[in-house]
Amino acid sequence: MTTTAAQAMVAATARLRAAGVDDPARDARVLLAHAARIEAARVTLIAPEELSHEVAERYDQLISLRAIRVPVSHLIGERDFYGRRFKVSADVLDPRPETETLIEAALAEPFERVLDLGVGSGCILVTLLAEQQGALGLGVDLSEAACLQASANAVLHRVEARADIRQSDWFSAVKGQFDLIVSNPPYIALDEMDGLSAEVRDHEPQMALTDGADGLSAYRLICAGLGQHLAQGGRVMVEIGPTQGAAVAQMMRAQGLVDVVVLPDLDGRDRVVSGRKS
Questions:
Q1: What CATH number matches the domain at 79-277, 3.40.190.10, 3.40.50.720, 3.40.50.150, 3.40.630.30?
Q2: Which residues contact 268 (CB under 8 A, 6 or more apart)?
């Protein structure tokens, strides 16, 4: 029996809703576009058309995977961030809209050398280099797979000549000083992991989510390295969980940083702590 694209989408939406997926209609639409290899905006145009057997089969497989909470970004292999499309996989944390708060804060002043600790997909480093023409960047990550993903995104957005991506345990392979240091480190406490959505808990890399302790370990390590690697007058900014602002701000002040502020995201939750070396 043949099925139109519209009928397939209705059935897929019902299936995803029954599986407890947030915004099932949006996901059904995006995945149909991916299965049919068209832009999502064109789905309406093909709605009355019958799906080929190949597309219908591909769509059914995608919906089956989404129903067991595999993230849409992993199924289509990309995610939008700050106006650019980044390649992603299960090896890296998904770029998230709230991280754009860090981007906006970083771009508020010019910089020449930027260090991204825990580079992941490269979304922060690549975006900053793409927006700040002429700046040079170093991105480090303990995960070799993440380094490869970040390197691919640097090439995709044509900043590879200005981006050095290295495998490193925080500052271990870092030399020199930077006038901007950024990081979105693992900040979820171990006892908070069970409360995460299945998409995040089961499909994103654990090492990018949690420190396996109180959620503050990475900030202690980052702050300890600022004396050696943050240039005079340089800025540091880190993404945080919504309850960690005061603790991370205190760590920065303990290192002698000034102008320490906690910045909210668009939802009004504490999201970034920023400081400057006097």
A1: 3.40.50.150
A2: none
